[in-house]
Amino acid sequence: MKNDNLKDQYRINDRIRVKEVRLVGENVEQGVYPIAEALKIAEDRELDLIEISPNAAPPVCKVADFQKFLYQQRKRQKEQKAKSVKIVIKEIRFGPQTDDHDYNFKLKHAKSFLEEGAKIKAYVFFKGRSILFKEQGEVLLLRFATDLESYGKVEQMPLLEGKRMTIMLAPKKSVGNASQQVSKPIVKKIIQTLEATASNEEDNDNE
Fold first, then answer.
1. What CATH code is carried by the domain that includes residue 136?
2. Which of 20, 39, 89, 128 has the largest CB neighbor count within 10 A?
3. pLDDT tens digit sequence for 56-103
């Protein structure tokens, strides 16, 4: 059915009802020809006259084998469809004090998602007064990214928006030196966050 639809998109040979056409194709002298002469050129080469740009003035026609032409068009459509594959984003939710069992369970799923080519949107949801533990949430997300560095790269570092702190990960095409480049800024960020947390706790104790 799809093949028939593609085939019907083009007028060929005697179905082309115009006075003249602009001719293109291999081993053809390009230019504007009366339709009768263009048909004769195609016939002499045992090929078809295919109207490829009907809205041009004059319409553009190609001298080629129609079946091969359709095959090339289908192949091109297939390639374009493959390039325009919709990006899937999988969400993974944590609490600010997620236990190891729950963490490892979600980490396993995240690895599978990244291997399948999906992006990961991982977030910590702060409910009520748990927003006071936002540093813990940030450390958790950074740890999550570090544990996934062989599978995905960080597109967005932890960002707090309302009651959510989110990190974005994209699948990694190749594993190797690139994974080393992700871990350094993440580890540095973890250290800075922990130092800030310790400093805040010390200030609170002094009060």
1. 3.30.110.10
2. 39
3. 999 999 999 999 999 999 998 888 877 766 788 999 999 888 889 999
